[in-house]
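Why this split exists: single-chain examples teach little about how molecules sit against one another. For that reason, every record in the complexes split bundles all components of an assembly together and asks for one structure covering all of them. Below is a record exactly as it appears in the raw files.
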Amino acid sequence: MNQDKKINIAIGPAPYNWGKPQLLDFYCRELADTNVQAVYIGNTICHKRNILSRDDLRKIVAALNNRGIKVYYSSLALSTTSEEFNYVKDVAPLFDGLEVNMLGFFNMLKHDEFQNLEIILGPYLNLYNWRSAAYLKKFKPKRLVAPFEISLENAADIAEKSQIPIELTAWGNLSTALSWRCYTARAVNRSRENCDNICFKYPEGMLLKTVEGEDLFRIDGLQVQSAKTHCLVEHLDKLKENGVSTVRIYPQLGHTAEIVDTLAQVLEGKQDAKASLEYLAPYAPSGFCNGWLWGKAGWEYVAA
Amino acid sequence: MSITKGRPEDMLKLHVPAGNLECLKTAADCGADIVYFGFHTASNLRNFKGINFSYTDARAGVDYLHNAGKKALITINSYPQKSELSCCYEAIDQAADIRADGVILSDLGLLEYARRKYPELGIFLSVQAGACHAETINFFAGEFGIDCVILPRVLTLDEIARLSMEIDIPVEVFGFGSLCINYEGKCHLSSYVTGESTNTTGTCSTPGYLSFQQTEAIIARINGKAINSFSYAEIKEAAQLAGKLPTAELAQWGNHFLINRRQLCKARYKLNDGDDFQLNGFIYLNTLSILSQLIRAGINAIKIEGRQRNSSYIRDITTVFRKAIDFYYRSPTTYKVENMWREPCRRQFPQINASTTCYMGR
């Protein structure tokens, strides 16, 4: 499937807590000239970080739509309150579609105002096999974002047997855990309930090193991420033949546009993959990883 | 299934694990209402060597429980990938074949299979499904007719009380045992460091990846990553606090001390600025002190963690929780933790402290 189509590039939801000016600048200015086909907006980790107003969201969606870019809202992956759930219900109709990261959001799709939304099956839904993916076909999903730790072999099996195109993360710090506890608040001796949005001070997260000083994880509020940057730039040629329709780039503070351009050039065969990896190295300060794609430990890196 | 909701006369059900037939019989004999266990395959978490059931033992276990008037659940709560799918379907078939009362599931494909093929089989939604919102639980209820939801350990007492009012199916919570600090089904720490996934193969920081380097301190590594460093003085001090003398027994105790601290969520990290940081402290869950609050919050079953634990643990903890539940229903207003219950709990987790985790607030 998808052999004759080009692979699209999507921008995943922004991690951390960048604050309103930084978010507006990122979506309205930094992405302005990049070659992307889809953008996801919304914080999947913590509702307190949903700081853009409806007007802000409308403005971003209009600007990106004008350039032919589809804009999706990414739902929370862990929600325990009605307030959080109702917020997603409220803003989702402003977008072209909804990335569902919690199964409960499927309940609201039967209502009229959500009928035109394109549905993306999010990476937090734990769809590890084709039968689980196929069960959700009744919601007519456009794509399935593969779980972070899935191998290419398993992603290809899901794509082939469920006939749902796969979106695969090709760049970013991957989610390695979610918790009820806010680790950023814990690091500064606060509770989650009284955090005062302290994560605003850490727009690139907080590094966790081993006792020997090796970068191992990165804290993003309720989430723990890989310290290393998951990078598939050397393997983009293998993705199309394995049912991947879209590659996802998770944004980072600065240089996201350069990263997008580099991957786009490699996808179009205009740039050498090895040379691109060297070019991208400064944007991955803790180094590269991609072990999960090959069924290995996530921190490992497999070269082409 | 035997768990019901909304009838005041229904007592809280005690749900106890078993890693082998001896533990299963102990659980039944000590007062469990329901015993849960898994097969010897990658179909369940706690897929460790030396525990879990053969088909023959599982059949014998179900018969034993039914003869004692108890219920049997088969845990099939991994998220299988293509190579594990068939063993999970087979596990569901076998659970039905041996007349288990239900299965504990989390994967959508397995839920669909179990409900379609065995409409009479009870389905408990595993904690691994991470269903912590009424809309999500209602999704599973509407799609698969689940009989009970096992809540993730991410909710406060107030949230449990509210949730219990908002859904029509019975609620089960964890009451005792080892404590995952992360949201179940969304923790890949072990997978990232070792390549063995908790979700797909049911393993977590397995001891096979653990190694020690002895220098001026003991450095513990998981798959080469230095996750902890303990000075000898620190281990000795902890041993003295636990009443251990500097004998041959101490070496064994120290070994356990290190092995018990191997999980990546309990590792010692260095933050940006060099401060020590742990995702989670060295704690275990014990809800005896808040049992009455949990019951008033509307829970219908309480679960003991630990299919990997031995029959001494099962005997101690099942006995204590049976007494506690019976005490509460005999006299709800005077319920309190009896002194004689404390020692068996401490005995099973001698090197770490008890916690009520986020039940009392985040």
